[in-house]
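can u do me a favor
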């Protein structure tokens, strides 16, 4: 595990898509370490309704990857695809084009990534139409904690939900019970290259509101 300050981990945990090492195995003991850390995240009413599916079997990964590829291709053709945003801003558009390219690359390789982690919620009464923020807020912080822990161990991850367009197909592949709902798909692998640095972001004052909008 690399010794990093909290600030370094928080500002350099990037979405890794093109630089995932598809050939280097990931020891599931390391994934377990990261998930153990993730379980320290908060959850509503301390319910801890999260469930974690770790997919390492090659055939299972390939099957999930095929569904993801289909969803990814449809996303890339949509008007909301990363590369089609901010077209009027040349500087920002250039960044979006790189993101678009990396999304496409992950679509091609998802089924080859050594480990796929799928955070889930068990919701016996169904998702309903109530406080969805509170519901998903009980698993998303833990999933992010997993990604941060992976970063300190030299692992790259990416947060994606494109496969949820075909959630029932993935659920069938993985044998998920009807009351278990997927929150994301997190490819996990060692990364190639030297490392990561903070990404360009909007200035805080452009998005900050104090007391009133």
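np, heres the sequence
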């Amino acid at each position: 595990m690399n010794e990093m300050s909290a600030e370094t981990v928080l500002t350099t945990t990037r979405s890794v898509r093109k630089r995932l090492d598809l050939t280097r195995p990931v020891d599931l003991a390391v994934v377990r370490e990261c998930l153990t850390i993730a379980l320290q995240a908060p959850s509503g009413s301390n319910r801890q309704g999260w469930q974690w599916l770790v997919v390492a079997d090659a055939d299972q990964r390939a099957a999930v990857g095929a569904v993801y590829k289909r969803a990814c291709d449809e996303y890339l053709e949509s008007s909301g695809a990363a590369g089609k945003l901010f077209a009027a801003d040349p500087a920002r558009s250039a960044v979006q084009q790189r993101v678009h390219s990396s999304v496409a690359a992950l679509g091609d390789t998802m089924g080859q990534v050594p480990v796929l982690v799928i955070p889930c919620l068990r919701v016996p009464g169904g998702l309903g139409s109530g406080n969805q923020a509170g519901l998903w807020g009980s698993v998303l912080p833990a999933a992010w904690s997993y990604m941060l822990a992976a970063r300190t161990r030299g692992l790259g991850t990416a947060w994606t939900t494109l496969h949820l367009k075909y959630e029932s197909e993935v659920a069938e592949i993985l044998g998920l019970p009807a009351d278990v709902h997927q929150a994301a798909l997190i490819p996990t692998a060692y990364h190639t290259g030297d490392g990561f640095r903070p990404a360009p972001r909007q200035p805080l004052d452009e998005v900050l509101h104090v007391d009133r909008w």
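The longest helix spans residues 58-77. hope that helps!!
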